[in-house]
């Protein structure tokens, strides 16, 4: 007899996966077509066939320690060729959602952000914080004169709120990432063929070129959308840092002039984000769920990015148009979406960035990465 | 004593199910009209090398049926014929039959002089295009009726007529025309059978692009002594003897993108074909890649026998990619070995796709009032006076088809004599 293996199925976990968009999980009959057609799947311990049986059996601990769910790029070649309509691509998506919740610190933040029924509540939190701060400091009115957002919501307050909270959640994210890194070492082994530094740099360079995405066939258009959104965020990150530099070092207050190259970058990034997210939405609608059946978690996230972008653009346009009564409320709404995007980063779909970066880095270090 | 000597049953399809339905009904004492669209009777079974359960050549079983047909004056059969229209209802169907011209009459002795004279070739569909015949040809060595036929889509007609000159018996008539005629019948049995699923539809399995990927029905023809290679199992690209072969199970079956059901026979067919190779070549290595190997009932014994052969490996995992190695012409298969959690990327001399059974009626709907189930098979419950049998109703092996056809013959006779 082979050595004894004890499995501890978690029935509740199966239910959660199925509710999170993996309702087709039980259709899988383990033919392993998916592991072969997947352009990312490695030679040794290929996925996602094994994830499907682990999911069916409710092996939560194994899935929460599985590096492969993050190596998956959601191309959905697996779902296209699946003979049973078991949609491994969607099931792995549900597993990643569950993973984010599981690794979240504090736990309740993961529960709030990954639960789509709580989305309005999650958005209400920053709004209440903003209103309380504005109310207490006597800023809860529309200022007269030229529209300058810091006259309404002093930049110092914004920074105090955001830097504190992003600092806290960022720290929690680092702890989560560290936990995942330990898991990777335990599951994948530490027989390294490459150092962390080299592997990490290679991973980041791949992110910049979206090299792995080009392997996707069934969902090839998604690469462009994802690339535009990615660079949109990169651009806006640079602008944000630069504006802080302007403000504190150069003494230039926002809004900066339309002629400033940083403004060009900001506008270009916003446009990139808008076009990118529209491509992603259009693809999902065009697809009508044939290859990808987007979960409500996915749709919520996509919608928030879309609203973030639109409110951002409107905030600028209304300011330029000089409609004070609309501009300040719009700014407040925009800040609410900004808060969701960056403060909730470790608990929303954006958390994939760090987990995926670590998964690929570790794959590279152990020589498992596909070329 | 004949049960209903003045009543007639129409049987559509002259494969193993239709033949059985025909002789069983006629021998109980009714008239039978059998309509077959090919120029010969015997259907898919005639194309096999050997068949279950006893692994005899198909003519073991077919010849007995042909003899029963020849002896029985109550049976009339038409080849090259199809049912064009059906009107009326149980007890009084009026059926229009269209028969294509054979261009060869009953004087033919199958001497083959015409073939020598004929200058035109056509792909031999009996051998799945793996060789050619002349435009005038005998469908296969043991064809019944044993009579030549002309493929008029290739024949140059009267301007050539070299075969007419060559025939000493005056058996060739290039003036033959399509005939349409009516028959009146009391009941109808559909035994319209199946086609091998079109393997080119599985774009990841390379059929039609990778030269040494064939289907299981092609394998039957390669192994058959009356096949394109006279029974030598060699690969199509270069005629090389096959030393290392893979079978890909569920090629299209159990797949909602292709055939959303188990074709029931492919596992046993591959196990059987593995023995073809092993008997012919004692050093040959066989690998069968499967999702689940299904050897129902008594077939378990055969499965155990094949499993005991150490040169036959069975690996759980569905092949989902086949590419050609351009330097050798070898097909390279990729599969996950599920039990060992590893991908296998391996070259073989030849790969056989265990393609499934697609009911004839999936793409070609029948005339008259007939009911279909979701995959295009005929429903077992049909309107009064109409019966369906064999693979027309579901994937079956030969044995079960015969049992089913006999059962449907009884059902049919019951309605003829006023029973329910």
How much is the radius of gyration of chain B in Å?
Answer: 23 Å
Helix content of chain B: 10-25%
Strand content of chain A: under 5%
**Which spans of chain A of ≥5 residues are poorly predicted at pLDDT below 50?**
none
Write down the domain tally of chain A: 2
Total beta-strand segments of chain A:
0
- Termini separation of chain B comes to 21 Å
Specify the oligomeric state.
heterodimer
Task: Estimate the global geometry of chain A from the Cα principal axes.
Answer: elongated
Number of helices of chain A: 17
Which fold name fills CATH's third level, the topology of the largest domain in chain A? Fumarate Reductase Cytochrome B subunit
Brief synopsis:
Chain A has 371 residues and is mainly alpha-helical.
How does this model look, in words?
The complex is a heterodimer of chains A (371) and B (420). Chain A has 371 residues and is mainly alpha-helical. Chain A folds into two domains: 93 residues, Alpha-helical ferredoxin (Fumarate Reductase Iron-sulfur Protein, Chain B, domain 2); 259 residues, Fumarate Reductase Cytochrome B subunit (Up-down Bundle), CATH 1.20.950. Chain A is built from 17 helices and no strands. In chain A, helix 11 packs parallel to helix 17. The longest helix of chain A has 34 residues. Chain B has 420 residues and is of the alpha/beta class. Chain B has three domains: 170 residues, 3-Layer(bba) Sandwich (FAD/NAD(P)-binding domain), CATH 3.50.50.60; 54 residues, no CATH class; 158 residues, FAD/NAD(P)-binding domain (3-Layer(bba) Sandwich). In chain B, helix 1 packs parallel to helix 9 and helix 6 crosses helix 7. The longest helix of chain B has 19 residues. Chain B is globular, with a radius of gyration of 23 Å. The mean pLDDT of chain B is 96. At the A-B interface, helix 2 of A face strand 18 and strand 19 of B.
Q: How would you summarize the topology of this molecule?
A:
The complex is a heterodimer of chains A (371) and B (420).
Chain A: H1 11-22, H2 33-37, H3 49-57, H4 60-64, H5 68-71, H6 77-81, H7 88-103, H8 107-114, H9 119-136, H10 149-152, H11 155-188, H12 196-209, H13 222-250, H14 261-287, H15 296-321, H16 324-343, H17 352-365
Chain B: E1 8-12, H1 16-29, E2 31-35, H2 59-71, E3 75-78, E4 81-89, E5 92-99, H3 113-117, E6 121-123, E7 132-134, E8 136-137, E9 149-150, H4 162-166, E10 179-185, E11 187-190, E12 194-196, E13 213-215, H5 216-223, E14 244-251, H6 266-280, E15 285-290, H7 299-307, E16 312-316, E17 321-324, E18 331-337, E19 342-347, E20 350-355, E21 357-359, H8 360-363, E22 386-388, H9 398-416
Parallel strand pairs in B: 1-2, 1-11, 2-3, 11-22, 13-20, 14-15, 14-20, 15-16
Antiparallel strand pairs in B: 4-5, 5-10, 6-7, 8-9, 12-21, 17-18, 18-19
Helix pairs in contact in B: 1-2, 1-9, 5-6, 6-7
């Amino acid at each position: 007899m082979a050595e004894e293996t004890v499995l501890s199925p978690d029935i509740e976990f199966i239910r959660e996966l199925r509710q999170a968009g993996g309702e087709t999980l039980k259709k899988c009959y383990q033919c392993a077509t998916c592991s072969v057609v997947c352009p990312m799947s490695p030679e040794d311990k290929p996925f996602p066939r094994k994830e499907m049986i682990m999911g069916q059996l409710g092996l939560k601990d194994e899935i929460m320690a599985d590096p492969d769910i993050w190596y998956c790029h959601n191309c959905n070649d697996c779902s296209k060729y699946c003979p049973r309509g078991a949609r491994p691509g969607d099931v792995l998506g549900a597993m990643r959602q569950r993973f984010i919740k599981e690794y979240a610190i504090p736990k309740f933040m993961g529960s709030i952000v990954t639960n789509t029924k709580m989305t309005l509540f999650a958005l209400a939190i920053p709004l209440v914080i903003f209103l309380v701060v504005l109310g207490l400091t006597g800023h809860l009115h529309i200022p007269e004169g030229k529209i300058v957002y810091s006259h309404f919501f002093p930049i110092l307050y914004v920074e105090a709120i955001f830097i504190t909270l992003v600092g806290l959640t960022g720290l929690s994210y680092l702890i989560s990432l560290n936990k995942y890194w330990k898991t990777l070492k335990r599951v994948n082994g530490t027989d390294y063929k490459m150092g962390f530094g080299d592997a990490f740099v290679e991973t980041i360079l791949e992110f910049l070129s979206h090299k792995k995405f080009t392997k996707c066939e069934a969902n090839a258009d998604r690469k462009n959308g994802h690339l535009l959104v990615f660079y949109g965020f990169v651009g806006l990150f640079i602008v944000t840092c630069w504006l802080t530099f302007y403000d504190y070092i150069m003494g230039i207050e926002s809004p900066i002039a339309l002629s400033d190259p940083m403004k060009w970058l900001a506008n270009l990034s916003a446009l990139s984000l808008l076009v990118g997210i529209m491509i992603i939405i259009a693809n999902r609608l065009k697809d009508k769920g044939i290859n990808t059946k987007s979960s409500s978690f996915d749709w919520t996230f996509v919608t928030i990015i879309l609203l973030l972008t639109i409110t951002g653009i409107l905030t600028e346009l209304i300011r330029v148009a000089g409609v004070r009564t609309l501009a300040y409320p719009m700014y407040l709404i925009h800040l609410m979406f900004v808060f969701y995007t960056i403060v909730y980063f470790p608990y929303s779909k954006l958390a994939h960035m760090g987990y995926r970066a670590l998964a690929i880095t570790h794959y590279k270090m152990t020589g498992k990465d596909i070329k | 004593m004949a049960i209903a000597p003045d009543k007639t049953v129409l049987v559509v399809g002259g494969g193993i199910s239709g033949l059985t339905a025909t002789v069983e009904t006629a021998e109980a004492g009714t008239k039978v009209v059998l309509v077959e669209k090919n120029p010969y009777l015997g259907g898919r079974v005639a194309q096999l090398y050997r068949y279950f359960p006893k692994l005899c050549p198909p003519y073991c079983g077919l010849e007995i049926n042909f003899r029963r047909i020849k002896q029985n004056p109550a049976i009339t059969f038409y080849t090259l014929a199809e049912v064009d229209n059906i009107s009326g209802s149980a007890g009084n169907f009026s059926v229009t039959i269209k028969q294509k011209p054979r261009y060869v009459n009953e004087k033919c002795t199958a001497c083959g002089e015409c073939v020598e004279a004929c200058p035109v070739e056509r792909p031999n569909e009996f051998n799945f295009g793996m060789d050619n015949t002349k435009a005038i040809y005998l469908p296969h060595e043991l064809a019944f009726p044993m009579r030549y036929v002309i493929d008029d889509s290739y024949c140059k007609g009267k301007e050539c007529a070299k075969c007419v000159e060559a025939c000493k018996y005056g058996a060739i008539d290039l003036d033959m025309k399509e005939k349409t005629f009516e028959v009146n019948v009391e009941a109808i049995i559909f035994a319209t059978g199946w086609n091998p699923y079109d393997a080119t539809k599985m774009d990841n399995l390379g059929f039609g692009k990778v030269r040494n990927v064939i289907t299981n029905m092609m394998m039957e023809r390669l192994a058959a002594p009356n096949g394109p290679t006279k029974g030598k199992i060699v690969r199509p690209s270069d005629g090389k003897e096959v030393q290392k072969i893979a079978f890909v199970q569920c090629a299209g079956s159990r797949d909602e993108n292709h055939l959303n059901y188990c074709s029931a026979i492919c596992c046993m067919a591959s196990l059987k074909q593995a023995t073809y190779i092993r008997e012919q070549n004692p050093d040959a290595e066989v690998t069968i890649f499967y999702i689940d190997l299904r050897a129902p009932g008594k077939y378990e014994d055969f499965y155990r026998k094949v499993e005991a052969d150490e040169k036959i490996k069975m690996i759980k995992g569905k092949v989902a990619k086949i590419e050609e190695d351009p330097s050798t012409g070898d097909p390279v298969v990729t599969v996950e070995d599920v039990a060992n959690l590893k991908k296998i990327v391996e070259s073989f001399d030849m790969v056989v796709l265990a393609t499934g059974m697609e009911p004839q009626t999936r793409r070609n709907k029948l005339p008259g009032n007939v009911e279909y189930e979701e995959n295009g098979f005929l429903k077992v419950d049909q309107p009064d006076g109409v019966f369906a049998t064999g693979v027309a109703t579901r994937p079956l092996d030969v044995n079960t088809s015969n049992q089913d056809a006999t059962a449907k013959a009884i059902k049919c006779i019951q309605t003829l004599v006023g029973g329910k």
